[in-house]
Design brief:
The chain has 322 residues and is an alpha/beta fold. 32% of the residues lie in helices and 24% in strands. The structure holds acetyl coenzyme *A.
């Protein structure tokens, strides 16, 4: 059996930080409301000269260093992002160029907040089928580029960041199962309705804005994530109490608490970072994983469940023995 095993992880948050108190000066909101409803205390914003590839590059460098590999060994780059630098070239190739490596396939996967879990699942398949020996998988976003800073319903939720990992084949431990799902019937509940082939000119003019039906998203997210997590365990004959760590998409503390409750998992077994950076979409899971691994909580051999949910809707789980 070949597993995809994590050899190293890295994360990057831009230096510019905005607290809930800073937001009080922009819109009619307050720290207490934001913390109680979402768990978010602060978020980081990409600098004017920073695009998604810049954030992804910084996280990738740290993952490469942490894995102790030669960057020339990388033979696959996949990035989950919904905020690419350009229409093309894809952000994976931009990071490949920044790293100074050449020739390996590099591409982006677009699945909103589930983008990293989708990208990781694809990389896992590349490794399992024998071709790939060293994959760089990234989740990176500049979500604040989509934000209308006068809309209190959405501007308090999001932030920018990037996380990355190096994956290699192993006969010992690694990814046990990936499950992905989507249901386009929910497309109108969470969307940014402009892109290259539709209403492109509205982007950047304030005419296009992120639309979210918050309480509807909340309800479907809680139900779907709970179902997906239980399905992942059941399909792999894992009992709830065997799980060592939950590494969830960091969108909202209350959604995370609901999933933990469904798994009968105390919050001490959940990696929580939403307070430090808000919803960074595809970047949130690899960043949280990096936090848990680097601070020593997630140990080799432990059972970890990652789970994501995002616009589309899309969702996914990855069960692994780290
Ligand atoms: N500050 C103060 N008041 C606010 C703010 C704000 N920033 N935003 C909304 N309100 C007000 C509303 O106007 C409303 O006022 P009203 O009762 O006078 O009309 C009141 O607060 C309650 O609004 P609700 O939308 O019902 O508040 P809710 O408890 O549902 O919380 C939230 C809103 C946090 C968006 C919640 O619905 C949520 O987390 N939804 C999930 C959406 C999510 O996480 N999206 C991220 C992307 S999807 C994903 O990654 C899973």
């Amino acid at each position: 059996m070949i597993y995809s095993r994590i050899e190293g992880t890295g994360r990057y948050l831009p230096s510019k930080m905005m607290t809930n108190f800073d937001l009080e000066k922009l819109v009619d909101t307050n720290d207490e409301w934001i913390k109680t409803r979402t768990g978010v205390e602060r978020r980081h914003l990409a600098g004017a000269d920073q695009a998604t590839s810049d954030l992804g590059y910084e996280a990738a460098k740290k993952a490469i260093e942490n894995a102790g590999i030669d960057k020339e060994d990388i033979d696959l780059i996949i990035i989950g992002t919904t905020t690419p630098d350009y229409v093309f070239p894809n952000t994976g190739t931009l990071i490949q160029d920044r790293l100074g490596i050449h020739g390996c396939p590099a591409f982006s996967v677009e699945a909103a907040c589930s983008g990293f879990i989708y990208a990781l699942s694809v990389a896992d398949k590349f490794i399992q089928t024998g071709g790939t020996k060293c994959a760089l998988v990234i989740g990176a976003e500049v979500m604040t580029s989509l934000i209308d800073w006068s809309d209190r319903n959405t501007c308090v939720l999001f932030g920018d960041g990037a996380g990355a990992m190096i994956l290699k084949p192993s006969s010992e431990t690694g990814i046990l199962d990936c499950k992905l799902g989507a249901d386009g019937k929910y497309k109108d509940l969470l969307l940014y309705p402009a892109g290259p082939s539709k209403d492109f000119k509205k982007i950047g003019t304030g005419e296009a804005k992120l639309i979210m039906s918050g309480s509807d998203v909340f309800k479907v997210a809680v139900r779907t994530l709970g179902d997906a997590a239980e399905e992942a365990l059941k399909a792999n004959n894992v009992n709830k109490e065997e799980l060592d760590w939950l590494v969830p998409h960091q969108a909202n503390l209350r959604i995370i608490q609901a999933t933990a409750k469904r798994l009968e998992l105390p919050l001490e077994k959940v990696i929580l970072t939403v307070q430090d950076h808000g919803n960074t979409s595809a970047a949130s899971i690899p960043m949280a994983l990096d936090v848990g691994i680097r601070d020593g909580r997630i140990q080799r051999g432990q059972l970890v469940l990652m789970e994501a949910f995002g616009g589309g809707f899309t969702w996914g789980t990855v069960l692994m023995r780290y």
